[in-house]
Fold these 2 entries.
Entry 1:
Amino acid sequence: MRGLGGAVIMRHELRIIGTMPGSTLLGILLPIVLAALTQGLFAAAVPTTSADGTGGAELAVPGMAVAFAALGVGRPGFAFFRDHAWGTWDRLRASPASTLDIVVGKVAPWVIMSLVQMLGLFAVAVPLLGFRVSGSWPALVLVLLATALCLSVFGALLAAVSRTSQQLNSVSGLCGLVLAALGGALVPLPALPNWVSSVAPALPTHWAVRGLHMVVLERGGLADAAVPLGALLGFTAVFAALTTLRFRSAESKIYWG
């Protein structure tokens, strides 16, 4: 019954996401526009070890994919606040679903949403920007999936520590910007101050960008992406553990629209 309850919650959340196709498309269009505008700037940072024919698009597109996933880190958190605003949270708690089922059912659809947007960005970039992947597409998908999972679980953690939707909005916005900027997604690390290179490995976005660069730029396969994948899964485990420790299903949340 518990697993079934989580599946029902997940389907319901997916239906809600499905009523917002504009948001999904915007998550593809905005990064592709920014990638198109900045690929000339990114071209100067393409490593000399990259595959032949690699240009700025191969650096800009993965960066924008990770950056916008990070900037949207608060989306899973707002799924929890929405139920409090609608008065349906107590019904979820009274259902056969456990707290874990509820959290997984709320977060998993946003993992899928983030993955779809990043894959959509890569697919659109192929004909529009001449983007190409020199390495393994399965490795690319795994890195994107690990990135989506990590950032979505982090979003659940932000919801767990936030009391109001305004707090969540502020904290997620700040965290998303820090993750995108200092992780080397918005701007390549070589173009940033030297101290950023020392801080970047402490952020999951750094490993997401590194994994994508290995696959896209350096002909990488699953073995080459193993370290970034391991780092992303390690961050995910830490975020999940902290969410478990802090999340209180009986704690009321205040939604201010």
Entry 2:
Amino acid sequence: MDLLLKKMEEYAKEYRVPIINENGKRVLVSVIGEKKPKKVLEIGTAIGYSALLIAQHSDPEIKILSLELDEQRAEVASSFLSESSYEDKIEIRQGDAAQILNTLTDFYDVIFIDAAKGQYPYYFKQALSLLAKDGVIIADNVLFRGYVESSEKPPRRYKTIVNRLREYIKMATEHPEFETKIHHDGDGLAVSYHRGKNSEET
């Protein structure tokens, strides 16, 4: 497994595919290892690196549904997963996550968001109806190269992304049903723990 992950890291570096970095990886593995989920929804597969990490540290009965917009990346991810012992536990569904999320009816112990940063607020809203009671929502890259917490204006090309990520953090930290911690490891991970109450109880 370690050899496969190393191979994926080298591929990501060579082809400039963004995957979770070493510091963010430690947080993700820690949260997953503590939660031991049986059902996980991942928004943004890339080459399947995070999906494998999650599978490796989850309950042995883990089932992961991973959504990926890019057809080529979905194919590469499937190829890598075929080299692992988790191939039958991870389903990659290629297509627009915004559309696929509307069709899902299952509840997930963990929802991991690592896709289009400008869509994070929308993904959070969708995740609310798909998260199991006491579930966890994890979002990567929420500090986006330091721009999100900086008082300086971001480059124009990143303005929308930074504003949307600020909106995401505000939604996650102020939502009455969640306790959210922003980890500064890596590029920033927001970990939102559901308090286990229905909205009418809060």
